[in-house]
Design a protein that fits this description.
The chain is of the alpha/beta class. The chain has six helices and seven strands; from the N terminus they run αβαβαβαβαβαββ. The longest helix is centred in the middle third of the chain and has 14 residues. The termini are far apart.
């Protein structure tokens, strides 16, 4: 799939992250949520339908992905959800102007290793600005050689693995969708690593 088309499909990781949001739907009303690399925006749409105040974002260099975000909102009767052009690793006026955030969402954003550090620098910037926020992310294990552990340490971030069975996402058919199938999908929550004594 060409880079510019990544955001035009619902990927299995999005279905799993949407399941996590659904399992935690009672905690979402009033929460401020930002989805990065949103594309078709399934997790963000689910969060918005559950009462969260959602902002969707994708690369400002991919206008068709931003349009896909807008179309998903309109199809799901969410015309007031803002869509923001936000390119990973770049400090932009849109990034600087974001209001308080409680949760950052990202499904399958750890797809291409050349983007990993740009993603985590953006996450670090957002978490520094919102120290109690968390980054909820699902990813597909595509290579045993791909890891973000060193980058998490570099950017003073920590990750907590979330077992799929803990929110009913360890099934082949999830939410009446056969999409997750037998893919190797993992979930983690990334937050700021606290210094000793803080």
């Amino acid at each position: 799939v060409l880079d510019s088309q990544y955001g035009m499909y619902v990927w299995p990781c999005a279905v799993v992250l949407a399941q996590y949001l659904w399992a935690h739907r009672r905690s979402l009303p009033g929460k401020r949520v930002l989805e990065i690399g949103a594309g078709v925006s399934l997790p963000g749409v689910v969060a918005a339908r559950c009462g969260a105040q959602v902002t969707l974002s994708d690369s400002e260099e991919l206008p068709q992905c931003l349009q896909s975000c807008r179309s998903s909102c309109l199809m799901n009767r969410l015309p007031r959800v803002p869509v923001l052009g936000l390119t990973w690793g770049r400090v932009s006026p849109g990034l600087l102007s974001l209001a308080h955030i409680d949760i950052i969402l990202g499904s399958d954003v750890f797809f291409d290793p050349k983007d990993f550090e740009d993603i985590l620098t953006t996450i670090y910037f957002l978490l520094e600005k919102n120290p109690h926020a968390e980054f909820w992310t699902t990813y597909q294990v595509r290579s045993a050689d791909w890891s973000i552990e060193a980058l998490l340490h570099k950017w003073n971030l920590k990750s907590t693995h979330v077992p799929l069975h803990s929110f009913g996402a360890d099934k082949e058919h999830l939410a009446s969708s056969s999409m997750p199938g037998r893919h190797t999908i993992e979930m983690m929550i990334i937050s700021l690593a606290r210094s000793e004594g803080t």
